[in-house]
Amino acid sequence: MSAPQLETMDLEVFAAIARLGSFSAAAAELRVAAPSVSNRIAALERRLGTTLFVRGARGSTLTPAGQRLAGYARRCLDLLDEAVRGLDTGTPERLVLAAPNSFAATVFPLVFRALDGLPVAAHGRVAHSREVVEQVRDGSAHGGFLLTQVATGSLRSERLGASPMVAVCRTGHELCDAGELHPDDLVRAKLVVYHWDAEGEPLAAAFDHPQRRRDEPVHTTGSPETALSIALRSDHVAVIPRFAARDSLRAGQIQLLPVRLPLWSVELRFVYLAANADRPGITALLNALPWLREELGS
């Protein structure tokens, strides 16, 4: 049996509803009649043999099948857009790079600096680590940055370093003048710990001392920038990867605490398809790897 045929407009309408959460809002954005949007989605659902949206009083949400289609729809539309851009020799090369949210705020500014002066228009996209790999593999992203040991298969992978976990506090914090500390010494300190995935659970548990007050638990977050922001604005100690503390340390806003942490670190990698190695943007980033390693390790 042949696969159902999808039109570009099917994907555009579907993606707009998924993003806006509303059939009427999608119709307004696409400048088509609302019944036309409803009819197109109904026809698409019949062809696919599944329901894509649940419509309710507060808008439309994706079903599990719709969630699966959403990623494919976005990547297909991105590839079509890139194809059109690629035919216009008068515009800069478009370079799509993906990174997890916990790394994007650090690595994308460095990437843009590495591309300064080149006819390359970079677009930084935030995605989960496994989605980064999928997008690089299927071509909807030209390169990606990873924090964890995700299987990359046929992708080329360049190591950027291993960023150790460090404890930091704002300048002027009462612990700034303390001597060498053990995690147990922070039992009375307010703590927020970066928790990147299952690998980070033992690190958070190391601070969850039995004598810690129940009204001052150890907080965790999947965003090192959030943990750092909390430490800058309060008396919390943040346990985060060193790369996330880089700029604030240079500015003198925070200080490293001499806490004897277990040897946890976060692996940093750049991945790309071999077929993209000759793209000017990817070539520039590969040439900039020594500088990127130095910046991320400082």
TrEMBL record:
**Keywords annotated in UniProt:** DNA-binding, Transcription, Transcription regulation
Quote the SUPFAM superfamilies the UniProt record gives.
Periplasmic binding protein-like II, Winged helix' DNA-binding domain
From what superkingdom does this record's organism come? Answer: Bacteria
Domain called HTH lysR-type: residue spans? 6-63
GO MF annotations, alphabetized? DNA-binding transcription factor activity; transcription cis-regulatory region binding
Q: Which family does it belong to?
A: Belongs to the LysR transcriptional regulatory family.
Name by which UniProt lists this protein? DNA-binding transcriptional regulator, LysR family
Q: Which organism is it from?
A: Amycolatopsis rubida
